[in-house]
Structure of Rhodanese-like domain-containing protein:
Amino acid sequence: MKKILVLFAIVASTISTKAQENNNIILLSPTDFKMQIDGKEVQLIDVRTPEEFQENHIEDALNIDFYSEDFESEFNKLDKDQPVYMYCRSGYRSNQSALKLEKMGFTKIYDLDGGILNYNKEE
């Protein structure tokens, strides 16, 4: 049984890696996310609600609410060929947003693993 679980884990890991190689979405640890946005002019997007955004957000982030009717039209204002860094509270909405952006033609999408909750833990 243990061998089967190990084999399953290896196969699942391989499939997951292959899936990520086939798309434009890269999940970044909080440390890597901070290094890539720190001091740079990037397209940094917070996909939480305006209320959540007002409570706290990463400096220079633009708020585009995942639940907003204007979600796609707001993202269409951005440069699809430039990297987009995004986050939400815990990672679910930013992951769903990243999938939408990929379908919209964005080529470099960086998603903060664990959202702002994880980001703030490492400060």
In short: The beta strands are 25-28, 43-46, 62-63, 84-87, 109-112. The first strand starts at residue 25 and ends at 28.
